[in-house]
Amino acid sequence: MTRQRKLLTALCLLTILLCGCTFRMDQEPTDLAVCQSPLQSLIDGNQRFASGHPLHQNQDSQRRSDVAGEQHPFAIVVGCSDSRVPPEIIFDQGLGDLFVVRSAGNIVDDQALGSIEYAVEHLHAHVIVVLGHDNCGAVKAAVDGGDVPGHIGSITAAIAPAVETARHDPGDLLDNAINENVLRVVNQIKTSEPILGHEVEAGQLTVVGARYNLSTGTVRWLTEP
Ligand SMILES: [Zn+2]
């Protein structure tokens, strides 16, 4: 057993003691998600990343082989395409752990909602994190307004309602618009019909909003699960 796997086993056993989750003692854990709640796995992973002590779990050739035939991601992340906010890295996860939908400004259209529905219905992921971040260029473009070339306008148009709502809030407009944009997308997913809204109402799907800090590497949760 490698040092990393020994550490994973110890963390899993500790979680069992603390949380009472079920885990067969004769099994060697392949990742922490098998014995933790999805959100807790993301919280712990981000703490490891932000503190400079990532485990880089599930990124080796064995894991690649294990998930080649099928995938069972434990969470869905709707994030910004920004090159500084890759979900697998900032949550310290690996192959097959996260189902990720990314767009500039972490907005969702019908295609993105369809991707999320697939992950919920067919891959049985039951937690969605909508992840914004500070200094988001897409939100800043929406705040700045004016003409933008090509299809970029469809992005700023989707973010514009969040900017208008944020204008009524005290404080920095860009900062508030980033938060408001996350909250709007959370609500958009929660009320999406016919699948996602129904799953939320049935208590089968959790959607939370969060915000990543580019400087510290930490994720702050904007909504309660
Ligand atoms: Zn961004």
The secondary-structure class comes to alpha/beta
As laid out across the biggest beta sheet, the strand order is 2-1-3-4-5
Percent in helix: 40-55%
**CATH class of one domain, anyone?**
Alpha Beta
- Number of helices in the DSSP assignment: 9
Secondary-structure arrangement, i.e. CATH architecture of one domain? 3-Layer(aba) Sandwich
N-to-C SSE series?
Answer: HHHEHEHEHHHHEE
Uncertain spans, ≥5 residues at pLDDT below 50?
1-34
Mean pLDDT: 89
Number of strands: 5
Using the CA coordinates, give the radius of gyration.
18 Å
Q: Which ions and ligands are bound to the chains?
A: zinc ion
End-to-end distance, in Å?
36 Å
Strand content: 5-15%
Biggest sheet details:
5 strands, mixed
Shape: globular
Provide the CATH superfamily of one domain.
Answer: Carbonic anhydrase
Summarize this structure briefly.
With 225 residues, this protein is of the alpha/beta class. Helix content is 44%, strand content 13%.
Please render the helix and strand layout as text.
Layout: H1 3-19, H2 38-50, H3 61-66, E1 75-80, H4 87-90, E2 98-103, H5 110-121, E3 127-133, H6 137-144, H7 152-166, H8 173-190, H9 196-201, E4 206-212, E5 219-221
Parallel strand pairs: 1-2, 1-3, 3-4
Antiparallel strand pairs: 4-5
Residues 80, 82, 105, 133, 136-138 line the site of zinc ion.
Q: Explain this structure to me?
A:
This protein is α/β, with parallel strands linked by helices and 225 residues long. It has a domain at 71-221: Beta-carbonic Anhydrase, Chain A. The chain is built from nine helices and five strands, in the order αααβαβαβααααββ. It has helices at 3-19, 38-50, 61-66, 87-90, 110-121, 137-144, 152-166, 173-190, 196-201, and strands at residues 75-80, 98-103, 127-133, 206-212, 219-221. The protein has a five-stranded mixed beta sheet, sandwiched between helices. A hairpin with a 6-residue loop joins strand 4 and strand 5. Helix 6 (137-144) packs across helix 7 (152-166) and helix 7 (152-166) packs across helix 8 (173-190). The relative contact order is 0.13. Zinc ion is lined by residues 80, 82, 105, 133, 136-138. Zinc ion (ZN) is lined by residues 80, 82, 105, 133, 136-138.
